[in-house]
UniProtKB/TrEMBL annotation:
<feature type="transmembrane region" description="Helical">
    <location>
        <begin position="368"/>
        <end position="388"/>
    </location>
</feature>
<feature type="transmembrane region" description="Helical">
    <location>
        <begin position="172"/>
        <end position="193"/>
    </location>
</feature>
<keyword id="KW-0812">Transmembrane</keyword>
<feature type="transmembrane region" description="Helical">
    <location>
        <begin position="308"/>
        <end position="332"/>
    </location>
</feature>
<feature type="transmembrane region" description="Helical">
    <location>
        <begin position="205"/>
        <end position="224"/>
    </location>
</feature>
<dbReference type="InterPro" id="IPR036259">
    <property type="entry name" value="MFS_trans_sf"/>
</dbReference>
<feature type="domain" description="Major facilitator superfamily (MFS) profile">
    <location>
        <begin position="21"/>
        <end position="471"/>
    </location>
</feature>
<protein>
    <submittedName>
        <fullName>Major Facilitator Superfamily protein</fullName>
    </submittedName>
</protein>
<feature type="transmembrane region" description="Helical">
    <location>
        <begin position="87"/>
        <end position="105"/>
    </location>
</feature>
<feature type="transmembrane region" description="Helical">
    <location>
        <begin position="236"/>
        <end position="256"/>
    </location>
</feature>
<dbReference type="GO" id="GO:0022857">
    <property type="term" value="F:transmembrane transporter activity"/>
</dbReference>
<dbReference type="Pfam" id="PF07690">
    <property type="entry name" value="MFS_1"/>
</dbReference>
<dbReference type="GO" id="GO:0005886">
    <property type="term" value="C:plasma membrane"/>
</dbReference>
<keyword id="KW-1133">Transmembrane helix</keyword>
<keyword id="KW-0472">Membrane</keyword>
<keyword id="KW-0813">Transport</keyword>
<feature type="transmembrane region" description="Helical">
    <location>
        <begin position="409"/>
        <end position="432"/>
    </location>
</feature>
Length: 481
């Protein structure tokens, strides 16, 4: 086994164009985040476009969320076992298929099926980060991870205005053809540039564990994402939520008692990994609180007394700079991580989010106030999202990088899902009627900013307690340039 690992490392060390590999994996990250902005311009119009009820069209978003949450940790384990590049190609292929199905579908069923398959693309980001650990020299890994992490914001920031223009100028189905084309380009680039994964984990895939995790996550996330529509005390919400929790508890008990688990929960329970994942939930909540509230306050009519009356395109251009800030900061984050360690990045990221929400609570009467606050949030997410996979990979064996990064991505998604449900409930509860439509009040937005700030404070406190010591057996293998 030792000689085979050494041969694999020598082959990886001879791989050319490491910068090109990073660029290709960054492109797949952009495709992933762009996919999640596709429906934003038309989300409120879906009942009319699909001739369906608002409750039914909500599944266009919910199905993608559920698929992404389930597939991400499972694809991470598959990547560790069968090759990360291979699984990235599979995920891109599934996303392309989903895009084509949705592009040809005039009705809601086909759109939901297509959007479910599109959710598979989310797994390429944690897998891409794990590939970087396999193929890059240790001194280049942190900067590359920061760049890949930045694509999560950049793709959404650039994708929103692009989607808005396409929606305003053409048939909305063109959005899916654009997604399919981007996925196809990513597939070809990965196949051509990214080296075949040769560092793999032996053993059998835990199908029972995968099924248990999928059922448990679907139950919990259904309750979170549909609680507003179903009622938080309704049998459907309580049944799916509590049922999902019971399944997850049973799943955890099972995973701890088998020789080859889907996720090694003992590794996940290490203080550095556990605290990083908890901080991920809080940071995901803080990020999505702004994603939900800022565009709404920018787009609401001025006559409501709280909005600025911007068009979707204009509002997306105000939101866009945060993603660009993340991209600009990625090399800075990489250098800082090498010099001071990723923990400081996470602390600075959480602190930036606290400052952003504090600023918004004090100043939100002008468009430029929202612009400034959103830029500061870009700084926070840029540092925070770059630091989390670095902290994870410093704390787990190389055989666990795919699954552990997938689990961290799941925790971030959990934070954003909770934020979508909670902030959505706040904006719906504190609302008034305006031209026969319920619109949020100033109190609703203030409470949303307070909740986002609280989540940022939680992320900051948790980050301060993350241990920084790395065990010798968990160090990244030093590959030659």
């Amino acid at each position: 086994m030792g000689s085979r690992d050494e041969d694999a490392r020598r082959r990886l060390s001879r791989m050319p164009r490491q910068g090109v590999i990073v660029a290709v994996l960054a492109f797949t990250g952009l495709v992933s985040s762009f996919m999640f902005t596709l429906m934003v311009p038309i989300q409120s119009k879906l009942p009319e476009l699909l001739n369906a009820s608002r409750d039914d069209t909500a599944w266009v978003v919910t199905s993608t969320l559920l698929a992404a949450a389930v597939i991400t940790p499972i694809s991470g384990r598959l990547g560790d076992m069968y090759g990360k590049r291979r699984i990235v190609l599979v995920l891109l292929g599934v996303m392309i298929a989903g895009s084509v199905i949705a592009a040809f579908s005039p009705g809601i069923v086909g759109i939901i099926v297509g959007r479910t398959l599109q959710g598979a693309i989310v797994g390429v980001v944690p897998l891409g980060i794990s590939i970087l650990r396999d193929v890059l020299h240790e001194n280049r890994v942190d900067s590359a991870i920061a760049l890949i992490s930045a694509t999560l914001g950049v793709g959404g920031a650039l994708g929103l205005p692009i989607s808005a223009v396409i929606t305003e100028q053409s048939d909305w189905h063109l959005l899916f053809w654009v997604a399919a084309a981007l996925g196809a380009i990513g597939f070809v680039l990965v196949l051509w540039i990214v080296p075949v994964s040769v560092l793999r984990t032996a053993g059998r895939f835990d199908f029972v564990g995968a099924a248990g995790l999928a059922v448990g996550l679907i139950g919990v996330l259904l309750a979170i994402s549909r609680g507003n529509e179903w009622g938080w005390g309704s049998p459907a919400t309580l049944g799916t939520g509590l049922g999902g929790l019971v399944v997850l508890v049973a799943w955890g008990w099972f995973e701890l008692r088998i020789a080859e688990p889907l996720l090694d929960l003992r590794v996940a329970a290490r203080p550095a990994v556990l605290l990083t994942n908890i901080a991920s939930v809080a940071m995901g909540f803080a990020l999505f609180s702004s994603n939900v509230s800022y565009p709404q306050i920018l787009e609401l009519p001025v006559a409501t007394g709280v909005g600025f009356g911007l068009s979707l395109l204009a509002a997306s251009l105000i939101v866009m700079p945060s993603g660009l800030v993340m991209m600009v900061l990625s090399p800075v984050a990489g250098r800082m991580a090498r010099r001071t360690g990723p923990k400081l990045l996470l602390v600075l990221g959480a602190l930036s989010l606290v400052v952003a929400y504090g600023f918004t609570l004090l100043f939100s009467s002008e468009v430029w106030h929202i612009l400034v606050a959103n830029i500061i949030i870009g700084v926070g997410i840029g540092f925070g999202y770059a630091s989390m996979p670095m902290l994870i990979m410093r704390s787990v064996p190389q055989s666990e990088t795919g699954a552990s990064n997938g689990l961290n991505a799941l925790f971030r998604s959990l934070g954003t899902s909770v934020a979508a449900a909670v902030i959505g409930a706040v904006l719906a509860t504190y609302s008034v009627e305006f031209e026969s439509t319920q619109v949020p009040t100033g109190t609703a937005f203030t409470l949303s900013f307070v909740l986002g700030g609280i989540a940022a404070v939680i992320a900051l406190v948790v980050a301060l307690f993350i241990p920084t010591k790395r065990a010798p057996e968990e160090r990244h293998p030093s590959l030659p340039n």
